[in-house]
Fold these 4 entries.
Entry 1:
Amino acid sequence: MLQPSSPVLRSSSHSPSSAFTDIQAKTDVQPPCSAKVIDADENLLFPDAVSLGRALGCPPDLKLKSLAIVGNTGDGKSHTLNHAFCGGRDVFVTSASQNTCTLGVWAAYEPERGYLLLDTEGLLGACTNPNRQRRLLLKVFAVADVLIYRTMSDRLHSDMFTFLADASDAFVEHFRPELENLAQRSQLPWSSSQLGPAVVIFQETQHTEPLDSDPSSPSTGDSGVNSKCASFLAERFASLQRSADAFSCLRYVGVRTHDPPTDFSTLVRTVEGLMKDTTVRVPRRLSHIFQMLASLNEHFATEIPATSANTFVQEYFTCPAKCMSCQARCRLGVNHLREGLAHECRTAMGDGCQYNPSLQNKVYYCK
């Protein structure tokens, strides 16, 4: 069982309008104020929705929609939330340092739009367990209504498509069944076979033109993007033999920035349109969102190795032959048989092999 620890809070200097005075009276802070919800080790930092709502300045019974953002480290995820949805206020931490400034998952309540904003740790950063980090981000996918994949790459990388496909598969095969079971146990507003979040790929380029995202171009299917963008994204997923069918829709927003600041207007309009759409996801209480996140975080909390068993060198430069009994790989390099060297087992490592009666791999010693 994951034990909640002390949460980390960060407030902004923004003074909200009088329309939210009644909300603030029930809480300890004035929104928007960010708080760390889950740390980098997947520990939930709040015991219940009431304490989370108090930290965010949001009553737990208030209905809202959740907006999450993911992407590689250093691509400006926190900056995007601050300037696109928080009026430029320093709600989420940003830094010019090489060190990662966002660890785990942070949340903030944006009262003017009624959004629950979720900021996440960047991919490809200096984390102790990248696999655990990816699992945490996939959990955020499951609870978000709209998710932004932020990239500042001049060209869309394959790792983005792989990550989105992984998120789609994880939602269908693991998260959706668990959320359906949770809904049956606790009467949460969740329908069977519900689609995943709407995903917006937000690409900011400097030296290349973004994909054609002219709204006047004809749309293709339910993807909400014009035919050129839809075809390009579909071809990239197909080239990896993957798909993102679990998402309710997949949008693309591209902007080329010659001189700062970044123009977030198209991104904001796209996200606001998706957030207003209630055909797939309706606003949910903060307590329901917290319960979903807590359930997924507790259910999928097994130990996970930090790295794969074999490095690239071990996988592709070491002889692929394996022992038929213990499955240990040969310790020599590839093509060593051409040099007249037999396979070398791991007995020199001191742990020996495993006895298999069907193979009769006994070793006899003189007494």
Entry 2:
Amino acid sequence: MEAIRSPRDVGSGTPCAAGTADSLSHACQSGELLRRPGAPSVDPVDGRRATAIAGAATALHRLGPVSDLAPPDIGPTPRTFPGARRPDRSWWVSSDGLRIAAYEWGPSEAPCIVMAHGGFDFAGTFDGFAPLLVDGGYRVVSWDARGHGCSEHAALYSWAADLRDAVAVIDSASPDVPVVFLGHSKGGGLMLDLAHAVAHRLTHLVNLDGLPSKNNWPDLADHERTKMLRGEIEGWLDHRRDVAGKSRKPGTIAELAERRQRMNPRLSIEWLEYLVTIGGIEDADGWRWRIDPTLRLGGFGPWRPEWSMQRLPGVGVPTLGVLGLEREVMGWGTLPRDVEPNRPPVFAFCALEDTGHFMHIEQPRRIADLVLDFLADHPSPDLRPGSAAPAQPPVPAARAGVAGAGAGGRAGAGPSAAPDGGAEARRIVPLRHGKVDLALHLLREGWGRPLLLLHGLGEHTPAEAPAATAAWQGPVYGLDLTGHGASSVPVGGGYTAEAIMADIDAAIAHLGSVTILGRGLGAYLALLIAGARPTQVHGIVLTDGPGLVGGGIRPGSPHIPAVAATDASPDAFVLSELSRDVRPPDYAIEYVRLIMEHAAPVAPIAVATVVRPEWLTAVVEQPGVVELPVDEALASFAS
């Protein structure tokens, strides 16, 4: 039975295949579809994929008239292009019942790069780029966004839905092992959000001209801008009213390519004709783009492009940003000066004078070399080109487990040697806190007051002390918060910032007086614990990272998230609950006042963030709070 395939089953898609949804679902659940001829059983990774694929088959059953489904088509096309190669495998992913077409280039055992395409594009736009990364030792996975290419058309489209689709694809391609995230244009913004939402799922981030910093509108007077907004709204409503039952305008391959070239004048007509045969479909009256007719360029709403840029400083993995400086209709017009103030801790940045928005199509070899060199220059224990990916989630150097979680929770990661075989690089002090076992990591020995690192939401203690702490003379520790890293995962969630603050109090009880360097969620927690224990916390430094913003200054609409309970770390409940916790500015100010009542002559709160949510803006405005780079702030607390 070949109707739905695992990405490991090599073969090209065909226009149709036999098999009902019921039979497909049964076969997927039994593992039948995932076995190569002669293979005795399904391996654990394929077993996870079987679950996702079975979900796709179940979703098909609900679709009514559609009962037969072939894999997404990756067969030969009427046009070819030098260097372009169709994917080696294709499969369906069910994203909450919606069919998403996923594709893979390269050997399935190689380290994985997951790539997101831009708006009004397709996974096939990587046909010339992906093979170059495969030649560099990787496998590449991409997908057609909902409403694009072979993926199913949806009733509704939103940024949140695109994020869910992306996670479903990542789950199907690499359920256990972190991967490289790469995105172009809109896909770059998508991957930037995911670097915060699922920080434990990536080793590196690559952004190709996907860093918007402003609306790409002419610089108009306010009253003219109001007219433009009204026109956008009216045009969108008229489009939605009239679009039911309509399809995109047909034409020949050449005609569709010529239309596309008006928006992408730097791309050759030969490439665009090739793209038509991938992203289009031939009907009786001609070729049409396989894009839902309800989708249209442009739009309106409360979203601000600069909000995406504000995600950049908090990314916790090595990041490569590439800008094309040749202005194009579909580009953002972002300049290096827009990016520089928002640099994340480990950042490689290139601004290419002679390159446009579609850089990976225009200059695939050049961009592939940039990506491969970047990955080689920033190696990760989670990603080793040329070797098989590890069967279990990799853990940072010398990560060790703690004692069993007991009745209140599940144990975190077990003991593990450092990649070089030595466990002396760092050690873990197990701390029992209520019904939770915490992992307190000693990252560097020293004399004097300890520096305590608090990680961001979804992260864990880093493998090494950050470079900004090099001058700190005392020991450097890092605490894995409950539900993260090697600390235990409690059953049933129930996370609050105040409860996690008590984790830090347990570490302080062990260490004595500390200085705290907090990142993202850890920055907010540093403020809370410093107010609660002002005589034991000698200075806090607040930096960007996942979980810095929280859920805003007041509760939103009541929401019951669908969270699947697993043993995985980070806990799915902590990602959900501590991304929605309310942080009113006046509440944060109360902690500042508690700190200041016991403040030493040195200002006890240093803010080193680029992003300033409302609670942090209120903190910065208080007397005695200073704004300093991390190294300078730590130097001020060293005495």
Entry 3:
Amino acid sequence: MLPGAGRFVPPESREGRASNLRVTALPYCRISQPREVPLNQLLEDVLDPQKRGPALIHLAMKRNTVPNFSLIVWQTPVIVTLILQPIVIDDRVRDEFFRAEIPQYLYPLVTNPRQSASFEKLRITSLGMIGFLVKELDLEAVQFLLRSEVVPLCLRCMEVGTVLSKTVAVFILEKLLSTEIGLEYICENQERFLATNQMLASMFTTLPHVRSSLRLLRRVIICFYLFSCNPRKEDSLAFYNSTYKTHLFSDSVSEITLYNLLPDGIRDGSCIYMFQDDTEIQNCVYQLLWNLGCIYNNNNNNGINSY
């Protein structure tokens, strides 16, 4: 027998063995077609960052099958903006984006006074788009937002929005204040400066100092710190009573000071105990008070001089 050759089996034996085998039929399986997702559901999924990618793919498949598809997508709030968001990363596209003043289409969605969940979702999404534009501190973006009165828009949102939308609005304000033109824009007008600082102080005072609002409170502190860093205050702002309480406007009749506008928790430095694990914000509070002349070298009262 050759190596590897099997044992010879007569044909009769093979037939007998085959006759003893039982063939079990598989159950009938019906292959279901993919579930057709309604257009309104896809439009809602686009608002969810985790579902946005697949939803946009399915939307593209429906463009030739759904009547008035383009009109429906165009008239659905925020959808077109979310589609444009990854496109405006290109600087060449961004220039055209601002020339067309497209961001202003978002402003009514942000200032809408309605507080239902659906309108709040629109508000947060629209603010997120504006925050995306200002995040990189692009000069043209900052100039456009200041020119189109985005500061009052953010203040309005801080008044009517939830903690999340307030946080995004303060983030936008923080980014504007971190630029020289943004800081100058807000400080050059007394009414604008007072409205901004009073809103920040009101939020810090009225919000519960709990974990869910710490992100917002943190950004409020940073905004006050940025106000105290005005590089022109030595030249254009006056002082009074031989102290370092800074006059924000030299021609102001009343004693309007950044120090007096600070909430008690920031003015006395006690807010640092809310951020025991955040050395960055603790240093920010101390630097803010130092800039206003509220800290001196003394071991008493944590080095904070209460006037």
Entry 4:
Amino acid sequence: MLQVDAIIGQAGLLLQQRLSFKQHRYINPVQLRQHDARLTDCLRLLADIALPQDTPAWLAWLLAKAPTAALTPEQLPAVTDKTYAWLMLHEIKYFERPERLLATLKPLYLQLPNDMNDSEQTKPAGLGCWLALRLAPTEVANDAATAAALMQTSIGLIALGLSRKRQLLPQISELASTLSLTEPRHGAVCAAAWLLGQPKDEVTLLKQLLQSGCLVSDALFCDVLLMLLMCAAPDKAQDQMVNMLANLNTAGQPTQGTVLAIQAIGFSGQLKFVPLLLELSQQPELNALAVNALALLLGALDADALLERAQMADFAGGKAGRSLAGCTVTPTHLAMVLQRGNPQQRQLAACYQFWQNPDSPLYFADVFTGGRTDAGTASA
């Protein structure tokens, strides 16, 4: 029994570590694959053992062989980001058999029209469509009923846009014409149409997302949508967008506007922001955000070296064009980042590739076994 308890404890530790890798500046795809393999091996060991009655609910669900319903909030482990834990546990369970995942999620999709008055990204229906987008994007909405249900919420609309369901653009455009500017879905429906190829000024779109309350820092789609906006926008528009975010009148410390503005700077690829990020990194409450942004622009090791220098303000970029992980953004460099970068760098590279490949859905770099490089390069 002691050995079983030790393996259960090891599984919990490996899961906790896996959840932390999304923002890890130093982990590369090979290390991510190795960790995923260790977690998978640990679960296989437990699958052949009689589990004690006090086995954590999330682990018992993960190891259940019979088809099961989606995880409930009560079954989740005691972690800070329960939303991400829900996604990751379902990815672990269904990664090799996404068709079973879709069968589990189908009932959740049809709850979406009745789920509009709550925080949609924390409910099973909203989480379900985002999970399907991450694991099986071509299967997100292959029938009219599911597509209609997804259009009832912001998260569903963004998922349709990121899955590149171009045949739905006429319906989404029609929906956009019926929504008021203050309707929560207004920003999302405009973003969905933009993602599906409808031309839109990025500054105007960001303003619409903010006005409708759609782009908030804890939304599942916030990071990737902000990345896609910054990748697509010209330099001048990027500057306007950073200023717009920085001037948001929001509560908290740091404020949500400050968080989004620093993230946008990291996504911008503009080295002129490096001195500002160095200055912001000296503020304890902004240090992690600023250092992550520097790692996106310069690469993690070069960012660390710059932070350690005595004359930090003497940085001079000297590179033309957008920068990602220390090099100018080119198709060749994007492929290299997908092969070797950390999860955030790889996600930003995938967002650049999203615009270069108009028929491919967005690739998620932090998905379970996201250390695979075939998924990223396949969309190249």
